[in-house]
Amino acid sequence: MWIEPLMWTIIGAVMGSFYNVVIYRLPRKIPLSNPRYSFCTSCGKPVEWYDNIPILSYFLLKGKCRHCGEKISPRYPIVEVLTATLFLMGSIEYGYPEKLLYMAVISSLIIMAFVDLEFYIILDTCVAILAVAGITWKWLDGELMQALLTGGVVLGLTFLLARFSRGLGYGDVKLMGAMGTLLGPYGFIFALFTASVVGAITAGVLIALGKIDLKTKIPFGPFLAMGTVLSLHFSKKFFGFLTGGV
Ligand SMILES: [Zn+2]
């Protein structure tokens, strides 16, 4: 049936639109409820409902504010398309109640990643949602002990790594602990490996293009988020393939 996936795609686009507000406001300490309306981040004028339709409005407005003509960040349509796409994928891949946990995980990963990209901070709230969703999910799967153990081991090892080396922040440490709980040992290794490889390639390309140099700080959170999503969808198939299983 296509009605439910379609419904989740629309919910994803609408939630993505809300996450854009969260991504903009939380690190700037602007309350989510005040002002209640969306506003242009350049001129401050309220955005009318017909200019606030997820994904579509950005293209209808040609990426510019109707009032001041200032460019609207491409982050807005990107977050909306990303949330809609992942909600669609999750709604097809998982049944209830795992589906709802997946949506919570995706939501906190998207908010965490885009805030980290801009502010170099990993929001504790997002990590906490990830950890709670992960523990609940693994409890449903009957793998609670293994999940808690993985989270604990990852937390300990990455804490030492952050303590004695530069480059890894304590936000990353907490995030990876939550990922360990959510993904279990194999899923976590898959996510960390994917995040590191894509992170290294991205840094290499940006250095080659002269956009950054070796000293530029690159947030790891967005790569860890991507690794987590890929792991949720592909790690079981990957390890199943390796061990000759289904
Ligand atoms: Zn404006």
Mind explaining what this structure looks like?
The protein has 246 residues and is mostly helical. It folds into two domains: 1-84; 94-246, no CATH class. The protein is 68% helix and 0% strand. The protein contains eight helices and no strands. It has helices spanning 3-25, 56-60, 75-93, 98-119, 124-140, 144-164, 170-208, 221-242. The chain is globular, with a radius of gyration of 19 Å. The mean pLDDT is 94. Residues 40, 42-43, 45, 65, 67-68, 70 line the site of zinc ion.
Entry summary:
The chain is mainly alpha-helical and 246 residues long.
Query: How does the overall form come out from the CA principal axes?
Result: globular
- Helical residue percent? 55-70%
Helix run count? 8
Number of strands: 0
The assigned structural class equals: mainly alpha
Q: Return residue spans where pLDDT drops below 50 for at least 5 consecutive residues.
A: none
Mean pLDDT: 94
Secondary-structure element order, as H and E?
Answer: HHHHHHHH
What is the end-to-end distance? 25 Å
Radius of gyration: 19 Å
